[in-house]
Amino acid sequence: MYEVNETVRIESFSDAVFAIAITLLVIEIKVPGHEQVAKTGLLYSLIDIWPSYLAFVTSFATVLVIWVHHQRIFAILNKYDHKLFYYNGLLLFFVTFIPFPTALLAEYLLYRESKVAAIFYTGIFLAISLSFDLLWRHVSKQLLSKNAIMLKKDEALEITKQYKFGPPLYLLAFGMSFVSEPLSITICLLLALFFALRGWPFKEPL
Amino acid sequence: MYEVNETVRIESFSDAVFAIAITLLVIEIKVPGHEQVAKTGLLYSLIDIWPSYLAFVTSFATVLVIWVHHQRIFAILNKYDHKLFYYNGLLLFFVTFIPFPTALLAEYLLYRESKVAAIFYTGIFLAISLSFDLLWRHVSKQLLSKNAIMLKKDEALEITKQYKFGPPLYLLAFGMSFVSEPLSITICLLLALFFALRGWPFKEPL
Amino acid sequence: MYEVNETVRIESFSDAVFAIAITLLVIEIKVPGHEQVAKTGLLYSLIDIWPSYLAFVTSFATVLVIWVHHQRIFAILNKYDHKLFYYNGLLLFFVTFIPFPTALLAEYLLYRESKVAAIFYTGIFLAISLSFDLLWRHVSKQLLSKNAIMLKKDEALEITKQYKFGPPLYLLAFGMSFVSEPLSITICLLLALFFALRGWPFKEPL
Amino acid sequence: MYEVNETVRIESFSDAVFAIAITLLVIEIKVPGHEQVAKTGLLYSLIDIWPSYLAFVTSFATVLVIWVHHQRIFAILNKYDHKLFYYNGLLLFFVTFIPFPTALLAEYLLYRESKVAAIFYTGIFLAISLSFDLLWRHVSKQLLSKNAIMLKKDEALEITKQYKFGPPLYLLAFGMSFVSEPLSITICLLLALFFALRGWPFKEPL
User: Fold this and answer.
1) Residue D25 and residue C86: Cβ atoms within 8 Å?
2) Which residues from chain D sit within 8 angstroms of residue C85, using beta carbons?
3) Cα B88 to the chain's mean position, in Å?
4) Type and span of the H or E element at B130
5) pLDDT of the residue at C2
6) DSSP assignment, residue C205?
7) Which of C59, C58, C54 is nearest to C24 (CA)?
8) A1-35: pLDDT as tens digits
9) Domain limits for position A175
């Protein structure tokens, strides 16, 4: 067990991973080719790739909200152990993977097999919510010193209460992807908004 | 509301996002293919992609100046709230998006439909100036403690005075893109210079 | 020789390099093309690229574990010298290179010449374990002040003991790649687990 | 003028830019295509792209050495002004650009017009050495407080003495690229070594 001022590097490494994952999303938006543009015009070609924008916005909002909650958790823990590196690593694993299902969804949303892409996409989000849950359980049970538990008890309880909704709601999005792709993506967008709104102990409105 | 020493992570996350967005720009400059080089020679092929260099320089200068102003703002705020994460997130959203319109402009500047590319490009810059405006309004109204307002009043006033020019000037660039693409890009370049020159409270010359 | 509080930048630079190398891995996983999908369906196309996932997981786990050990080493050193920059730079050189052999393995694992790809892949891991060994030897011999040696002697001994296994075990993986590709990749995965398990002075279980 | 503890963000932003530029280099090394491999075998195909490795090593070594000197300079300055952001920005501009001439050199080194690629490549390195020179002149003249000048005079003199060699030596590499490409690349590699060897006030051997 180590004191909390030593968590600088796990935070700066995580910040960089979140920042890169969120920035790489744009690479997957492809500039329309000249052949396509010759046929339909540049304006229409740019409108035509709206699934790319939708996937970009949804993934960006989700990663941003995860990052906000990540720094929230690390702001209240005050010791760390070996396991934290690997629970955190598991979360980062799924976060770094996001650009792939995002590109997949953008590519196949308008095609016959869009369901497979939506299942894959929401499945990764479900995996993220589960690994976030694991991380928070470990932190709340092991890494809040007695002192901190007293001082930050309300905040920890508030977080626990809110995070209970994560996995079931993402399971809902995942389940919905088998039925309706647009609806499952919409749920993911709304969930990002929901966790943005409620993502603070003092329940400030967004 | 939290004390300012806690803004480390929002700053380091933002720094990483700016750094990646500014560095990804180069990926969009494509090495000329062998076919093209066989026809015109490598030297001419490298000159031929000058729109890529122009778009790279303009976007680089703009992101650099935004970053300088971003750290300037965060250097004077001394508390933060939940909303700051999302105002900042909105700014970062448009910043991470920059490589796409940059690549679009580079690809289509010499083609018939360059106007669409220029409108898209200057439109993103307009969106950035608006989201920067939102961020600064929130900071200046909510996140300067009384104490800081006294000490840093001049700087805050100076910033407010300068930032008033942002949205209208970028609106001008956006409007101009409907008339003349080269002129609108030139305005964007000059605006980066303008905000670099005036971007400091003590009005030092660049 | 400098005091340890000055190692902030070598740590933040290294953190960023690790974070980018680990996040770039996903770029090499290519979204299946429409032609392929038309033939076999999207689901099968996504299963078909399992070597990409395997290479991604193996490389991600390895880079994560290297990073954990890197911060472990930098947490116990308490001075630094000029050579540290270049020993560290040599390690980062191989780490930044990882996306290339990862992509190579993903591309050729199912083809006739998979052996060449596996040799290349495990060879880079061997080079990393050797450069890590060099870094640790330098740190343990030169950069632990007398004071620190007393306080952290057990930890340093523990690290030395564990790291002795690195090069020979990665040599084994490298040697095995000449015989069986799947076995050599499996060994790499198990080694990441082994160094995760043992990667802490107090021998906590993972 | 601001106190030095405020340079955290310019350092962390620069660290991230250096880290990304150095890590993006590997993206330009392309996995050999199946057609090529079918003709010559995977092993030969991997040997065949040696210019990619050479360009990668040269650029990596150069960026690493620039970064080491960058942190060296920022470790001795103890105030900063507005201009520092833009001198530093100019240096970062050329650093972020490096992946392009690196890819260009890798692609055309074995072709008839390799001279153009080598001129472009060494030209960027010359530009970097000039912008580094500008940055150091500004720091050494404006940003060392009287106090610091006394304490760090030797180090500043030593740096000035060493940096005098930068622009003329890179001019030599640039000039040589008009005559012999291999020789000019070799000079660049040797210069990285030279600045690594001499890059420290106490003249420790590497």
Assistant:
1) no
2) 68
3) 13
4) helix B114-142
5) 44
6) -
7) C59
8) 344 446 778 888 898 899 999 988 988 888 888 88
9) 2-197
Q: What confidence tens digit (pLDDT) does each residue in A125-168 have?
A: 999 999 998 998 888 777 676 655 555 666 777 777 777 788 88
Q: What value does the mean pLDDT of chain C take?
A: 83
In this structure, what token pair is assigned to residue B12? Answer: 């380091």
State the pLDDT at residue D60. 93
Number of domains in chain A: 1
Q: The complex's ipTM?
A: 0.84
Backbone angles phi, psi at A30, to 5 degrees: -90, 135
C206 touches A at CB < 8 Å: yes
Q: Do B26 and D113 touch (CB under 8 A)?
A: no
Q: Are D165 and D187 in contact (CB under 8 A)?
A: no
Q: Report pTM.
A: 0.88
Percent of chain D with pLDDT over 70: 87
pLDDT of residue B146: 60
Q: Does residue D78 lie within any of the structural domains? A: yes
| Any domain includes C129 | yes
Phi, psi (rounded to 5 degrees) for A2: -125, 160
Closest CA to A114 of A179, A172, A49: A179
Does C6 map to a domain? yes
Å between D147 CA and nearest CA of chain C: 19
Contacts of D27 in chain B (CB under 8 A): 27
- CA nearest to A74 within chain B: B9
C-beta separation of B55 from B109 below 8 A: yes
B79 min Cα distance to partner chain A (Å)? 15
* pLDDT tens column, B84-123: 888 999 999 999 999 999 999 988 988 888 889 999 999 9
Distance of CA D44 to the CA centre of its chain: 31
Residue D38 CB partners (closer than 8 Å, separation 6+): none
Structural domain includes residue D206? no
Q: How many CB atoms lie within 10 A of CB B12?
A: 25
B residues 155-184 closer than 8 Å to D (CB): none
Q: Which long-range contacts (CB under 8 A, 24 or more apart) does C32-40 make?
A: C34/A111, C37/A108, C37/A111, C37/A113
Say whether D71 and C10 touch across the interface (CB within 8 A). Answer: yes
Contact A26 B27 (CB under 8 A): no
